[in-house]
Amino acid sequence: MSVQEYLDKHLLSRRIEDAVNAAVRAKTSDPVLFISNHMRKAVPSVITKVKARQILDSRGIPTVEVDLHTNKGLFRASAPSGASSGMYEAIELRDGEKGTYLGNSVNRAVKNINEKISVALVGMDPTLQSQIDQVMIDLDKTENKSELGANAILAVSIAACKAGAAEKEVSLHKHIADLSGQTSPLLPVPVFTLISGGKHGGNNLAIQEIMILPVGSNTFEEALQMGSETYHHLKAVITETYGAHGCNVGEDGGFTPNISSLRDGLDLVQKAIGRTGYNEKIKIAIGVAATEFCIGTKYDLDFKTPNKSGQNFKSGQDMIDMYKELCADYPIVSIEDPFDKEDWEHVKYFSSLGICQVVGGDLIMSNPKRIERAIQENSCNALLLKVNQIGTVTEAIEVVKMAKDAQWGVVISQRLGETEDSFISDLSVGLATSQIKAGAPSRGERLAKYNQLLRIEEELGDQAVYTGEKWRN
């Protein structure tokens, strides 16, 4: 093909002439740079390459990272991972070779991206998120994404979402809002982890975490300040009570004093809040993760204390009575997973009491079918969305719509194994969820999410709206 034939085939002469005319009209001082940028914008972006690698998450356990290339640049994303996985969530693919990372390496997932997903996506428009996600779902062919791996699919889905935002030249949260049909961005109330227990902490506390919500602040920036100050006051309170060794932290940054009583933990947090002077502006939430200590139909709150375990089981009704007393004695406004994931009867009854927000995490595992059942049976009134449990951005948007249509609250959540990727911050703002749970106000992988929300609030300026007292809406 001759040069002239090449120019004619691709209409390059006309495109260059248009770019030069635009540069003349703009009276630019750097016509070469202007023409270059003009040409780049004139060409629709497509995915040109998808390259994956194995990296380590915040626990030092392998996970998947993806570099997705378009003719606009490189867009990187990584998949988080939980402490455990359930039968109702999308399956992350691991190699299972005990001699390598104790069986946790993700080379098969990486290979699936580099050899299968990449081939399927090259040439696609990155703004077409639902089509990209559907191509991967169809390629996988399983209901739980076990063939390619939810960790592989999610990392690519997030990277494509970032590329789509860049192609449209808008912020990531704005692109997500466009994808979901959401018109008003919303800064969520941060749900800070202060004390860790359960599988998250090396102490005798059965419940997984005690958290705070700065609902009385006027901005997200102020909420972050409240959370940080309370966290540091709590460190002082724990040191005074248990000594410096009591200030060891769990994998999500929460303190792990050697307590076994939930009331002891709540008293510590209450004292710390009192020292901040914020008092009524800060509310408390607890994440129970009751499935971890459910045996049959009974609950063992001493399961982490060898000399007590099995001696004092609580029935579902006992747990309800305990929650009612705790909510009366402390400013608890939200309880996550108060019962076993299959204990639909008691969670439904407890939700009907209207005492507090009842968040379904292990109960529904971000699974659309479980969410639909919970909505029909009024089993809880808030969704805990963990994006790796569902596997794609499109499906995450869909389940949030389901929850909102049911007038539920939505909590966008971290996982125990996190990375520096701050995607869930933009997801929360773009979908206008009222709450985000990203761990303690410490540790880099947690602060990456909170700091990104600071940047978004600054970017939005006068348009920024912090959820605050309307966090249940």
From TrEMBL:
Its cofactor is Mg(2+). SUPFAM superfamilies: Enolase C-terminal domain-like (SSF51604), Enolase N-terminal domain-like (SSF54826). Its EC number is 4.2.1.11. Keywords: Glycolysis, Lyase, Magnesium. Residues 184-473 form the Enolase C-terminal TIM barrel domain. Coiled coil: none annotated. Transmembrane segments: none annotated. Pathway: Carbohydrate degradation; glycolysis; pyruvate from D-glyceraldehyde 3-phosphate: step 4/5. Residues 47-176 form the Enolase N-terminal domain. Belongs to the enolase family. NCBIfam families: eno. This is phosphopyruvate hydratase. It comes from Solanum pennellii. The gene is LOC107021128.
